[in-house]
């Protein structure tokens, strides 16, 4: 029984080796402890260091004995051999990069164990790994290209929107340039202040008109509070210029951005025509079933607003 673990150790050491493989001589030294322990067990009657029997007991029986020190040494050696066998088999089966795999199957009276050549499978796995890495690199490149295209599309879209808003507010941009030139040339301080206040009025329109354009580009329907915010800022700048203003908004439903821009353009046209000759402006926006009622009352000469009917008719707002 004690030699079974020893022979099994030799078998484990030979796993995965060629048929003509021979174990090196030093490995047979493992047989020395086994042989010594075997002899100590056989001749236990002379030293009783494996099994202890009571003194004076003439007939030694396996029902009346104790374990001696060498018994635990023998058990320890057998456990060591068992662990050595398991570790050896595990290493031969699990070593990274190994091209052999140990397989087994039960047979009558034990197991048959053999080594399978894993080289073809490992080669396929290596090729699959390389393909995976190449695909990951390709996906990374595609993602970067898509990100660049998305950024380019965003820049082009922004450029398109800025170009459109510049075209729609070209008149006010040119007017702003003229006012800047006049301020730089003007010597009189009071006239400079008056020109700067005009620039505030025009600047408020450019700011709010651009904001309406970008909001409408995102969604056609705007919150009614945009009427207050848009008209309110221009009216605030008019009051700084010295015009007494009033604003009445009775709209609760979402308003089309294109309608709000049309009303605001109309208000700006009246302001630019009447700025130097009016002292009062009242704007009123009322929601109707079929649209909006938008009126502007000023104390400017009526000839300044004589095309209001044509303008409001083309916008679809009465």
Would you tell me the overall average pLDDT?
80
Share in helix: 55-70%
Spans where pLDDT lies below 50 across 5 or more residues = 306-314
Class by alpha and beta content: alpha+beta
What sort of overall outline do the alpha carbons produce when their principal axes are compared?
rod-shaped
Beta-strand proportion: 15-25%
Q: Biggest sheet: strands side by side, in what order?
A: 6-8-9
N-to-C CA distance: 112 Å
Q: Count of helices? A: 10
- Beta strand count: 9
Q: SSE string, helix = H, strand = E?
A: HHHEEHEEHHHEHEEHEEH
Describe this structure in words.
The protein is α+β, with helices and mostly antiparallel strands. The protein is 61% helix and 15% strand. It has 10 helices and 9 strands. The chain has helices spanning 3-14, 31-42, 44-47, 69-94, 119-168, 170-185, 189-218, 225-241, 257-274, 308-315; strands at residues 51-52, 66-67, 100-107, 110-117, 221-222, 244-250, 255-256, 280-288, 291-298. It has a 3-stranded mixed β-sheet, covered by helices on one side. It has a two-stranded antiparallel sheet with strand order 1-2. A two-stranded antiparallel ribbon has the order 3-4. A hairpin with a 2-residue loop joins strand 8 and strand 9. Helix 7 runs antiparallel to helix 9 (257-274). The model is unreliable at 306-314 (pLDDT under 50).
């Amino acid at each position: 029984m004690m030699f079974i673990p020893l022979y099994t150790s030799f078998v484990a050491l030979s796993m995965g080796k060629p048929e003509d493989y021979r174990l090196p001589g030093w490995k047979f030294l493992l047989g020395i402890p086994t042989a010594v322990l075997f002899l100590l067990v056989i001749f236990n009657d002379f030293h009783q260091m494996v099994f202890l029997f009571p003194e004076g007991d003439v007939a030694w029986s396996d029902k009346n004995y104790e374990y001696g020190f060498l018994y635990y040494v023998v058990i320890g050696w057998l456990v060591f051999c068992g662990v050595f066998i398991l570790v050896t088999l595990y290493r031969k089966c699990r070593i990274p990069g190994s091209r052999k795999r140990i397989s087994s199957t039960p047979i009558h009276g034990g197991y048959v164990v053999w080594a399978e050549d894993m080289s073809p499978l490992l080669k396929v796995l290596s090729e699959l790994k390389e393909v995976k890495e190449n695909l990951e690199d390709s996906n990374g490149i595609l993602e970067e290209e898509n990100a660049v295209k998305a950024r380019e599309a965003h820049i082009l879209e922004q450029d398109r929107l800025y170009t459109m808003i510049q075209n729609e507010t070209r008149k006010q941009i040119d007017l702003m340039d003229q006012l800047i030139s006049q301020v730089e040339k003007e010597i009189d301080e009071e006239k400079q202040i008056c020109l700067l206040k005009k620039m505030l009025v025009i600047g408020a329109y450019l700011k709010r008109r651009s904001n309406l354009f970008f909001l409408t580009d995102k969604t056609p329907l705007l919150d009614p509070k945009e009427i207050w915010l848009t008209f309110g800022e221009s009216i605030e700048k008019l009051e700084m210029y010295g015009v007494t203003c009033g604003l009445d908004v009775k709209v609760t439903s979402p308003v089309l951005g294109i309608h709000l821009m049309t009303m605001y353009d109309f208000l700006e046209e009246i302001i630019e025509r009447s700025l130097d000759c009016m002292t009062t402006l009242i704007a009123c926006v009322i929601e109707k079933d079929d649209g909006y009622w938008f009126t502007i009352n000023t104390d400017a000469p009526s000839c300044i607003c004589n095309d209001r009917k044509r303008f409001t008719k083309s916008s679809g707002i009465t």
